[in-house]
Each structure stands twice: as structure tokens, then as C-alpha cells.
Design brief:
By secondary structure, the protein is α/β, with parallel strands linked by helices. It is built from three helices and four strands. 20% of the residues are buried.
Length: 86
């Protein structure tokens, strides 16, 4: 399975990449913005996108997910991060 990660936190993206590789799937791209993702999708086959909600670029994660799904029929998994106040 070809998987793309859209995450603006570098450590989180690397952590996800390691988990995906351990499950014997391929991470074919890691991006931090919608513009780079859509440029990549024009010429590459992707089966699944792990999408952060808050990303850089002209679109947020929700808008990017909707457009990617509707235009390329790609499955998406939206990632949410909850901050704890101690």
C-alpha cells in the first residue's frame, strides 16, 4: 500500500513513517502542506493519506482531505492532536 503523510510536526511524521514501515507498507511521501501534496498526486499513485487537520498551505487539513478524496478517490485518515493543560 502506498501511503502519504501530511503532517507539519516533523517528529510526528517520522514516528508515523516508522509505524507504517513496521507494518510493511510504503511511505511514498511526507509533506507539510496541501500545495505539495496536490503537486505530488498529479503524477503518483496513493492508496491512503494520513492527514493532520492543521497544516500549512493554501488549504487546511479538512479542505485538503475533501478535495483529495473527491478528485483522486483516495482514502484518508484524519489525525487530531489534543493538548493537555497540566
Amino acid at each position: 500500500m502506498n501511503i502519504v503523510i501530511i503532517e507539519d510536526e516533523g517528529l510526528t511524521a517520522l514516528f508515523l513513517q516508522e509505524i507504517i514501515k513496521d507494518l510493511h507498507h510504503s511511505v511514498v511521501g511526507i509533506f507539510d502542506n496541501s500545495d505539495a501534496l496536490f503537486s505530488f498526486l498529479k503524477n503518483n499513485q496513493v492508496d491512503l493519506i494520513f492527514m493532520d487537520i492543521k497544516i500549512n498551505g493554501s488549504l487546511d487539513g479538512i479542505q485538503t482531505a475533501n478535495l483529495a478524496h473527491n478528485k483522486y478517490l483516495i482514502c484518508l485518515l484524519n489525525l487530531l492532536q489534543r493538548q493537555r493543560n497540566y
